[in-house]
Amino acid sequence: MLQQKTRRKRSRTDSRTALLTTARSLFARSGFHQVSVDEIADNAHVAKTAIYYHFGNKEGLVIDFLGERIERLEASLIEAVNAHTEPRARLKAVFDWHTAWFREPDFAGCVFSRASEEYKGKQDEIAELSRLQKRSLRHAVRTLVEGAGVPKDRSDALAHCMIYLLDGAVVSANVLDEKDAADRAWDAAMGLLDNELARRDGARKNRDDQR
Predict the structure, then answer these.
(1) Is the pLDDT of residue 78 over 90?
(2) pLDDT score at 6
(3) 91 and 38 fall within a common domain
(4) Which of 7, 44, 91, 162 is a plausible cystine mate for 144, CB 3.0–4.6 Å?
(5) Are 49 and 72 within one domain?
(6) Looking at residue 190, which CATH number applies to its domain?
């Protein structure tokens, strides 16, 4: 009886928030297809009908969850980057943010990669949200490397490489429990950045010598 009263109360107040919070934990731990509507509702202590009321179906819940996840991640990354003013420190903040994420107790890898894998060819909107998150992070890194002095005609290639390093760090942290993976990725990223800046300086010197 007490559980029924709790469910009714939640359905009137914060059932949507409870469902999204519960889904975040379950999806991170078990993936998307393995988690049922009943499991989400039971763990959120709301009626299963609340899922259909707020989201239409389970896929609608996944879409809203991923959309809100993107917003939360972007806000957190922006805060981390804007805590610094020096260009290289701003770029390093992205890697430091990943290190802090890897050390969170509920870290279980990238939900966007998992969503893309599970829904590829099945649910275009879910797959597109996963691609959007990856493209958004790559664009942010490209902007930061340009701020660090990398020419625009070289920044996209470097941003790609840095995202590859970060993606590899996520896998290493999740599969091998290497919580310092992003720190090691940053060491490699610094080498790439230094090479690009040396290339830039060399090109400038050549132009100056030809004048």
Answers:
(1) yes
(2) 45
(3) no
(4) 91
(5) no
(6) 1.10.357.10
The verdict on residue 32 lying in a domain is yes
Residues with Cβ within 8 Å of 205's Cβ and at least 6 positions away in sequence, in order, are none
- Kindly report the CATH number assigned to the domain that includes residue 13: 1.10.10.60
Within-domain flag for 61: no
Residue 130: exposure state from Cβ atoms within 10 A (0-12, 13-18, ≥19): buried
- Residue closest to 192 by CA, chosen among 157, 168, 167: 157
Which pTM does this prediction carry?
A: 0.86
- Indicate if the alpha-carbon torsion angle 139, 79, 183, 168 is positive or negative: negative
Q: What percent of the chain has pLDDT over 90?
A: 78
56: left (phi over 0), alpha (psi -120 to 50) or beta: left
Residues 41 and 70 in one domain: no
Res 3: pLDDT: 44
| Domain assignment of residue 12, given as a range | 1-56
pLDDT of 91 above 60: yes
- For residue 188, the one-letter residue type is A
Residue of higher predicted confidence among 11 and 192: 192
Does residue 173 form part of some domain? yes
Q: At a CB cut-off of 8 Å and minimum separation 6, what does 40 contact?
A: 19, 22, 23, 26, 51, 58, 61
CB of 125 within 8 A of CB of 103? no
